[in-house]
Amino acid sequence: MPFKRMPQTFTASIGTVTIGTGEKAVTMGGENVLPLYSFDAPIANRPLIGVEVSDLGVDNTLPELAAFYAGADTVVEQAKRAATMPGADFLAIRLESADPNGANTPVEESVALCKAIADAVDCPLVIEGSKNAEKDSTLLAKVAEALQGKNVLLMSAKEENYKSICAAAVLAYGQKMGAESAVDINLAKQLNVLIDKMGVKGENVAMNVGSAAAGYGFEYVASTMDRVKAAALGQNDNMLQMPIITPVSSEAWSVKEAIVSEEDEPEWGPTEARGVEMEIATAAACLAGGSNAVILKHPKSVATIAAFISAII
Amino acid sequence: MYTITFKVQGALDQKVTASQGENLLELAQKRGVIIDAPCSGNGTCGKCKVRLISGAVNSIPNPHLEQEDYDDGWRLACQSTVIGDAVIWIPAEAGAFQKGIQTADLSSPEELERYEASIGKIFAAGLERGCPQKGLGLAVDIGTTTVSAALLDLQSGKVMAKASAGNNQIRYGADVINRIIQSAKPGGREKLQKAIGEETIHPLIQELCQSAGVEAGDIRRCVLAGNTTMEHLFAGADAETIRLEPYVPAFLELRGKVARDFGLPIDPDAPVILAPNVGSYVGGDITAGVLDTLMWERPEMGLFVDLGTNGELVLGNQDFMLCCACSAGPAFEGGDISCGMRATGGAIESCTIDADTMEPSYVVVGEPGTKPIGLCGSGLIDVISELFRCGIIDARGKFVKDGKRIRRDEYGASYILTFAAESGHGRDVEINETDLDNFIRAKGAIFSAIVSMLNSLDMSVEDIEKIQIAGGIGSGIDIEKAISIGMLPKIPLEKYSYIGNSSLTGACAMLLSDQAEEKVFAIGRNMTYLELSTYPGYMEEFVAACFLPHTNAALFD
Questions:
Q1: Once rounded to an integer, what is the mean pLDDT over residues B267-280?
Q2: B2-95: what fold?
Q3: Does domain B98-295 match CATH 3.40.50.800?
């Protein structure tokens, strides 16, 4: 019997979110097939890769990473360098130092930094907050105001602070927002419903459904993403059709395999190579699960994942 | 040694000697001073508020106590220890659960009418009346919170007297798990047996006999129906296995017992019949209740929901029955809710809110003019449904509007139903975000249990032809509002009915008829028990149901 192709396409599709302006603007989402199933139908927009730059500066304990950023001594310089990284579609500025339990950088300083970077580069921007819900609700609102017209994505609104981020970032200043939930399809949908009730349209929202480094309970992430995409495409659930953006580097570079020094575990090999492997493995798994964009930090991982995406799609 | 004086509102002062470091709540309990402590002293319910008049105690700060109240001398008894002489004032509402609990105990004409109609229907369905004993019969429904009893004439079936009281075990915890834990402590089994027997059922028998003008010795037959834990604790059986994997109770049926075996002050040779249990969390109150629902002889698909501290559900018809239980927690009965109370005087039992002005109007239990002091279960459902309808809270139960009735502090926001000046206890009556959270979890537990049970049979809510609601909270609940917040499935309202205290009705039928007794045992043996805690998908259904009305809004469109 001859082989008969039966493409599995859906009448529903994933929504799109565009960030940035002009020629460099990029769009995530839009497909009507399961993640990476380009053999079923053309994928509207290939998954995007973002490069993360922390406001705490470059981790100089990683020699290859330090070499890439050599000579870029300020965060703005580092952002300019990151924007040139081959394979990168957008820049993700992580305002780690704003955390009240850390350096607690004042809001004005963080905003000034974002403004300086936005003026220095022309690629699309994602701004990641301090992860402290209370601080982020004011911080991200101020960033939204300062970067008006740049069409940036602000991450992340959570259940505790979605109201101010919806109101300030999206409704007042026309930016995009990320909606973060903790690896549970129902919690993800609930947050989207709440955001929708604020009058924010789906085209302004990307979901961060949560992640874990590969091997650290990733099966929960895989099953959540699987079911989100199945509900979005199979059941046309428009409260789950937002594209998924996943910050990978913060997870991958914080597990034991990426931290323990070669001195302590000589048979494990160089620390940096391990971190890169964790980052690649996690990002590839997220993309297979349904992430429409991943955020990475190491040039090697970015290059590998870019090659992976173009080979598959 | 120090002297602690308890000044109980409306009672005599109690002086107790105590040593350094003794817990105030335990001290009061030891002395028989009753302070309602649904969480059994974990500092999570905020119910055991007492006021320090003079002296000092060492108290851990607690989110249930505002700074203002703390400065005013208010303390949580369970979070306070003795460090010197002290005089403690115990407000009346701390012991409110003891008096005049409003419950379905046949005390109103409507309840009596409903009872007589139900009994009539049970015997019209083919069961014959008649038992070997002559004289009086006693039926008791042992609830986790409330105990109701009725005294019947075995020949005529006439209700001679009825009464109800709070279950005195309440001071060992509001839910069955806390009670089981207490019963496992040294001497615990005896303490809990005494609390339900001598301290609760014996006075009830006395009260019944007094009001009917009869002798307790003339009671020749007794039927008790309670959940599995209550029956175990009443019988003095080991209840620990109910709580521990694989959740198998010590007995399902306990037959051939007489009053003497339990020390009941009635004819010592009177048979005592315990309605059979089905599983650890579906007990005799449900098997007796099912008799009342007539599901066992009807072709249509029926759902029986007993709303209480534990929610129990039975789905089925004449051909099969499936049952399960879920832990709704004490929220429906006022526990775990800062201003929650049982439906006694001063409880707000229904409420509407003006969407424009955010002003509430409500009905309070008690004599006209009674000032509100809290919210009972039906009032709570009304308030939450109204807050949601008016857009004052979002679908996660968080306050999204501001106004004169919304207060925000470091522990979150709250809605003030009654300002201190108009309330019965001089403090604001308010509902806060933690309360909303607790309630949403309780209603989520009920709804997800219904859905999981239906899913296990590959059925949907449309397949249910009749829903019968039982339980104390049920009498006042507005079904439409309960549906609007996703507590009960959205099916036409005419398919719903409220059947009162079905457990007590079933127990009365068992009292009057050997055939009804046998029928209940047959029902118990034929029911399939679904253990939700190990049922795949239940957790996910639960999270989906913890949203107003539901994450899948299509279920309530």
A1: 96
A2: Ubiquitin-like (UB roll) (3.10.20)
A3: no
Residue-wise pLDDT for B456-466, tens only, equals: 999 999 999 99
C-alpha B46/C-alpha B63 separation (Å) is 8
Q: How many residues does chain B have?
A: 557
Length of chain A in terms of residues written? 313
* Distance of alpha carbon B40 from the chain centroid: 15
* Residue of B472, B427, B380 whose CA lies nearest to B93: B427
What the block records as the tokens of B434 is: 């933690």
Helix (H, G, I), strand (E, B) or coil at B396: coil
Q: Residue B293 pairs with which residues in a beta bridge?
A: none
Contact A57, A105 (CB under 8 A): no
Q: Which residue has the higher pLDDT, B95 or B144?
A: B144
Which of residues 398 through 457 in chain B touch A, CB cutoff 8 A? 398, 400
pTM: 0.80
- Side-chain half-sphere of B324: how many Cα atoms within 13 Å? 25
As a whole number of angstroms, the longest Cα–Cα distance in chain A is 69
Q: Is A189 within 8 Å of B551 when comparing Cβ atoms?
A: yes
Please tell me if residue B551 touches chain A, with a CB cutoff of 8 Å: yes
| Per-residue pLDDT tens digits for B416-444 | 999 999 998 888 999 999 999 999 999 99
The pair phi, psi for residue A62, each rounded to 5°, is -105, 105
E strand or H helix at A158, and its extent? none
E runs forming strands in B100-174: 136-142, 146-153, 159-166
User: Residue B317 in contact with residue B412, Cβ under 8 Å?
Assistant: no
Q: Is B371:B422 a contact under the CB 8 Å cutoff?
A: yes
Asked if B396 and A190 come within 8 Å (Cβ–Cβ), the reply is yes
Instruction: Determine the residue of chain A that is closest to B412 in CA distance.
Output: A160
Residue type for position A68: F
Residues B50, B59 contacting (CB under 8 angstroms): no
ipTM more than 0.85? no
Instruction: Please state which CATH number belongs to domain A16-250+280-312.
Output: 3.20.20.20
Q: In a 3-state reduction of DSSP, which class is residue B87? A: strand
Q: How far apart are CA A240 and CA A218, in angstroms?
A: 20
Distance from C-alpha of A130 to C-alpha of A93, rounded to nearest angstrom: 11
Does the distance separating the beta carbons of B543 and A187 come in below 8 Å?
yes
User: Whose CA is closest to A190, among A239, A153, A246?
Assistant: A239
| Domain regions of chain A by residue span | 16-250+280-312
- CA-closest candidate to residue A136, choices A168, A90, A175, A184: A168
Whole-angstrom CA distances from A192 to A11, A165, B122, B392 are 21, 13, 50, 19
Domain boundaries, chain B: 2-95, 98-295
CB atoms under 10 Å from CB of B8, counted, come to: 20
Summarize the confidence of residues A214-221 as an average pLDDT.
95
What secondary structure does DSSP assign to B345-363, as a single string? TTEEEEEEE-TTT--EEEE
Tell which of B394, B399, B540 to mutate to test the A interface (max A CBs under 10 Å). Answer: B394
Rounded to whole angstroms, how far apart are CA atoms B400 and B404? Answer: 13
**What is the C-alpha separation between A70 and A66, in angstroms, rounded?**
6
pLDDT tens for B151-201 read 999 999 999 999 888 888 988 887 899 999 999 999 999 999 999 999 999
For residue B551, the chain A residues in CB contact (below 8 A) are: 186, 189-190, 193
- Interchain CB distance below 8 Å, B551 and A163: no
The rounded distance, in Å, linking the Cα atoms of B510 and B224 is 10
Residue type, B133: Q
- Dihedral sign, Cα of residue B493, residue B495, residue B499, residue B503: negative
| Residues A295, A251 contacting (CB under 8 angstroms) | no
Tokens of B531: 């253990």
Confirm or reject contact between A158 and chain B (CB < 8 A): no
Query: Pick from B154, B156, B174, B282: which is nearest to B218 by CA?
Result: B154
Would you state the structure tokens that stand for residue B236, as one six-digit string? 């003095």
